[in-house]
Structures are given as structure tokens and as C-alpha cells.
Design brief:
Blueprint lengths: L5 E4 L9 H16 L3 E6 L11 H12 L12 E2 L4 H13 L3 E4 L3 H13 L17 H9 L5 E4 L6 E6 L3 E6 L7 E3 L7 H11 L4 E5 L6 H11 L5 E5 L2 E2 L15 H6 L4 H9 L14 H7 L10 E2 L2 H14 L2 H15 L2 H9 L4 H8 L8 H10 L17 H16 L6 H14 L4 H13 L7 H8 L1 H16 L1
Parallel strand pairs: 1-2, 2-3, 9-10, 11-12
Antiparallel strand pairs: 4-5, 5-8, 6-7
Helix pairs in contact: 1-10, 3-6, 6-7, 9-11, 12-14, 16-18, 16-20, 17-19, 18-20, 19-20
The chain binds one RNA strand through helix 4, strand 7, strand 12, helix 11 and helix 18.
Length: 488
RNA sequence: GGCCCGGUCGUCUAGAGGCCUAGGACAUCAGGUUCUCAUCCUGAAGAUCAGGGGUUCGAAUCCCCUCCGGGCUACCA
């Protein structure tokens, strides 16, 4: 590998990225950065019928969010194939001139008819040159074009011997040439097909390693033959195994394969997503699991890439996200949360950040280790801002407690707390534990009813936290409400 | 159908002929810490290495066959 490493990620702007696309980009990025190479983005918009408005802009934002920002190419953020039509045409015409490609005038209906005929005869469907365009003299073809006939340009695939492909993950793969037919390079609309465009661009962009999904492996013979016909050196090939859905089928929307940007909306951290994705189909060879992007760059090695496809497991992603959230400092978590709701333009939460800015650090700290996603924050802290109402009073008793016990506990609490001056967490804890002892109450029997009274919930942050954050007035108010609820 | 690729606990994986009575992580279950939940700690269960033949003193690792899964077989990428 003496050549400089230059790689590219080449999506077609036909929709939003799912995790599989993001992982291909990640591996490609890691490979480039590990070797100190360059990482470009090339937009493959050669299928004019499938273009999706705004897809490229959203992709750029997403890549930035993931931390996979591509390098500038000729000063531009990406290369766009529709800007390079002349280049493909030039290559195709060179091949025509050399007799390595030809004009084909078969219509769509004719081709469809050919295929159905072959299918009926149990023959493998392929372009069989039944109209003889492969051998049509160039002058005749040009005459038809001049007459306005619609045409495509096909590559004359060699029909003898085999094409040997080397993939860095799988090693040598062999294909018999007579099984590949004369594929289309230039479509009737003048746009190139993937095969031609990829070969031309990767050559012109001096891409050292072609990285892409596994689904391309069986097309490589076309690309190899094209390189040879054009007289160009072959790049190295790396075909990543695909990501499967939980049903072991293709990643589909039905099985949690949402567009990647929805993971952002759902409160996942990009570093968690990156770490999670990196470990699907790649292993460092050690028992370590948690890697930052920088660590991944250092450790990434093609040797650690898996040959087999992997199933995507959402619960594992949750674990990574929880890990990363817990590793954030309170300050970092706080700014992440604010940023998250700010981007979401969530007026309710943003207002709370504003109005409760003094208490916010304590509020966040109280739920920090309980969050799986940033989105969870709203739900976990709701009770701080909105007093519980009309909850089931049967929630109030701790295990083995009666409603009468609860009344007594609340009464004791009210009278004790009313006289407490220092309403800090530590003071509250010290004091209440002592109150418990004085009244012969187990801590749980004192704190459970209190917590339910304050939050209306069976699970919440520590009662001392809740008390301290709510403050004396609000706490006593909520306890009084619980007492009223019990009485009714 | 044909051609390619793949197949280790439910999931992600370690494993390049003896270190494997197959290791780790997620999930699960049990216990501990604890006012609840969560965190954290400890432990358990979980894989006859898809199946069958070889090769070898010895195979998850090498070879062959079968089965299963996936991809390609477009004027889609």
C-alpha cells in the first residue's frame, strides 16, 4: 500500500440513510483516517427518476452530526455525478471507438419480451444479442442515431475466461465471464449507469480503495473488465457485510430500521451510535467495548472486519447510549440536554430550563443515571414541574403498610418537616433518618409514602433529592394533597 | 434456476490445528448495595462451533458434500 489512501462514500440521494449506510460510511471514514488518508463524499444521482428533494442537504447535516464530515474535493463539499456527464460519455465513446462497446437500440418492451421468453424456457435471463447490435457496423448505428433513434451504450463483456477479483475481506473471488452479459453503461437519457460512473469517477478521483456494501460484490467483474478496457489500474476492493433486521431479513422500516436522523430525534448520542455501529461487523480483537471515534480511528483494521452479515440489536444500542450518558459530566449532560431540546424547539422543556435554571443542575443530577436517551429526560422529570394529581392512593403504602399507616407517616412527616430550617439534601437525609428512628419507622416505610406523595409515581429519584429540589413549600403542599386524597 | 458470498450462546463477537472442560459484551435470571426505580457489584443459565464425511496423534480452525441464509442475475443503486 504505497499509494496514498483516498476513499469515498458514494450514496445515491434517493432517500435518507439507515444504519447500514451510516456504518458503511463509518468504516470507510475509519479506514481513511487510520491511514491518514482522505475521505470524500460523492453523490450518485444518475437515476433521475428516484431523486429525493433535499436528501443531500440532510445527509450533510447527518454526517456532521455523526462526526464523519467528508473532506473537501476541489474545494467543494462533495462531487456530484450529474455534473460530470461529459466524463462518462467520453469514456463510453472511447470504448465505442475501440470496439469495446456498442450502441444498442432494443426498446424496453423488446427487452422485457426477451426476458419473459427466456424465463418461460427456464433459461437464465440475460442480454442475448438477438438483434445483433453487438456486431452492428458503427456507420449503421450512427445513421440510426442521426435519424433520431433512441439508444443505450452497452459494454462488450468478454465471453471467455474468468475474472478474478480480490476483496480485502474475502480474498480471491472468481467469476466466469460468460455469465456476465453486456451491461448498459449509458442509458437512453444520456446518464451513465452505476457501473460506468463508479469506474470513471473512482479512477479520476484517484480512489485507492473502493468500499461499499456486500451487494456489489457480484458486480465487480463488470467493474474489473471496464477498468481493463479503459486501460486503468484497479483499485482495492472492500465489501462490507450488510446489517440485517432482527428477523434476519434485510434491514427494513418494520424492524426498527429507521432513518438515522430519527435516532437523533429519539435522543441517542452520536458517539454511542458510532460505537454501536462500529462493533457490528468489526472487532478490535480485544474485550474492550467502549471506543470513542478517535480510539476507533487508532484501532481500526480491515482484519477485524467480519465476513458474515450481522443482526442489528436495538437493546444493545440502548446500553451504549446509557453508558455514554452516564459518562458525561453533569455540565456536559446539561448542555447536551439543552441543545437537544433547543434543536427540537420544544417550548415546554426550554421554558423549564429557563424558569428553573437554578435548580436545573440538581434536577439533571437526580435523573442522570436513569436516562437511556436524552428524550427520556422530559418524562423522568415531569413531576418536578407539575404536581401529581388524582393518582391512586393505594400507591402510597409501602410494602405491608395499611392506609392508616400511611396517614400516620404523612402526619409525622408534615410536623417534622415543617420545623426543619435547613432544607438541603444532606440535612433532609440526616433529619428524616432520625425522625424514622424516633418513631420506630423503617426508612422504607417513611420514605416510600413520602415519595409517592411528592411524585405520584412508584419509581422516582431519591426522596431526599425530590424534597430538596421541590423546596419546603411545594413539598408540604404535595404532602397535604396526599393527605386529602387519603381522606376522600 | 444460474452465479457469488456467508453460517461460533437469543444478539454482537473472541478464536488463524493443541492455550477451548469454546472467552467477553448485550439481553435474561438469581443474589448483594439501596427508600422505589435506575446505577453499581457478584453469580447463574445459555453454543454437541449448521449437519455429514474426510485429512491429522489432535479440528470451531484445513478439504469435500449437504442444508440453511443473503446478494446479484434492470436503461436501480
Amino acid at each position: 500500500m504505497s499509494k496514498p489512501i483516498r476513499v469515498r462514500i458514494a450514496p445515491s440521494p434517493t432517500g435518507d440513510w439507515h444504519l447500514g449506510n451510516a456504518r458503511t460510511a463509518l468504516f470507510t471514514y475509519l479506514f481513511a483516517r487510520h491511514h491518514g488518508g482522505e475521505f470524500f463524499l460523492r453523490v450518485e444521482d444518475t437515476d433521475q427518476g428516484r431523486l429525493v428533494e433535499g436528501a443531500v442537504d440532510r445527509l450533510l447535516v447527518l454526517m456532521e452530526w455523526l462526526g464523519l464530515t467528508p473532506d473537501l474535493y476541489d474545494g467543494l463539499p462533495y462531487v456530484r455525478q450529474s455534473d460530470r456527464l461529459d466524463l462518462y460519455k467520453e469514456a463510453a465513446e472511447k470504448l465505442i471507438a475501440e470496439g469495446k462497446a456498442y450502441y444498442c437500440f432494443a426498446t424496453g418492451e423488446e427487452l422485457a419480451h426477451m426476458r419473459s421468453e427466456q424465463e418461460a424456457a427456464k433459461l437464465p435471463p440475460r442480454y442475448d444479442n438477438r438483434w445483433g447490435y453487438r456486431d452492428l457496423p458503427l456507420e449503421q448505428a450512427q445513421a440510426r442515431i442521426a435519424a433520431g433513434d433512441s439508444y443505450v451504450i452497452r459494454f462488450k463483456m468478454p465471453q471467455e475466461g474468468e475474472t478474478v477479483v480480490v476483496d480485502l475481506i474475502r480474498g480471491e473471488v472468481r467469476f466466469a465471464n460468460n455469465l456476465t452479459d453486456d451491461f448498459v453503461m449509458i442509458k437512453a437519457d444520456g446518464f451513465p449507469t452505476y457501473h460506468l460512473a463508479h469506474v470513471v469517477d473512482d479512477h479520476l478521483m484517484e480512489i485507492s480503495h473502493v468500499t461499499r456494501g456486500d451487494e456489489w460484490l457480484s458486480s465487480v467483474p463488470k467493474h474489473v473488465q471496464l477498468h481493463e478496457a479503459l486501460g486503468w489500474d484497479l483499485p482495492e476492493y472492500i465489501h462490507f457485510p450488510v446489517i440485517l433486521g432482527p428477523d434476519k431479513g434485510k434491514l427494513s422500516k418494520r424492524h426498527g430500521a429507521k432513518p438515522v436522523f430519527e435516532y437523533e430525534i429519539d435522543g441517542y448520542l452520536p458517539e454511542a451510535l458510532i460505537n454501536f455501529l462500529a462493533l457490528i461487523g468489526w472487532s478490535s480483537g480485544t474485550d474492550e467495548e467502549l471506543f470513542s471515534l478517535d480510539e476507533l480511528i487508532k484501532k481500526f483494521d480491515v482484519k477485524g472486519l467480519q465476513k458474515s452479515p450481522a443482526v442489528f440489536d436495538a437493546t444493545r444500542l440502548d446500553w451504549f447510549n446509557g453508558q455514554y450518558i452516564r459518562r458525561l459530566s453533569s455540565r456536559e449532560l446539561s448542555s447536551r440536554l439543552y441543545e437537544y431540546y433547543d434543536v427540537r424547539k420544544d417550548p415546554v422543556i426550554l421554558e423549564r430550563f429557563d424558569e428553573y435554571s437554578e435548580k436545573m443542575p440538581a434536577i439533571i443530577a437526580s435523573v442522570h443515571e436513569r436516562l437511556v436517551t436524552l428524550k427520556d429526560f422530559a418524562e423522568h422529570t415531569y413531576f418536578y414541574f407539575v404536581a401529581p394529581e388524582a393518582y391512586d392512593p393505594n400507591l402510597l403504602p409501602a410494602k405491608k403498610q395499611t392506609l392508616e399507616d400511611v396517614s400516620r407517616v404523612l402526619e409525622i412527616s408534615v410536623s417534622a418537616l415543617s420545623s426543619l430550617e435547613d432544607w438541603s439534601h444532606d440535612s433532609l437525609e440526616q433529619y428524616l433518618r432520625q425522625v424514622g428512628v424516633e418513631h420506630d419507622l423503617k426508612v422504607g416505610d417513611l420514605l416510600w409514602p413520602l415519595r409517592v406523595a411528592l411524585t405520584g409515581l412508584p419509581a422516582s429519584p431519591s426522596t431526599f433529592d425530590v424534597l430538596a429540589i421541590l423546596g419546603k413549600d411545594e413539598s408540604l403542599k404535595r404532602i397535604a394533597y396526599a393527605q386529602a386524597l387519603l381522606a376522600s
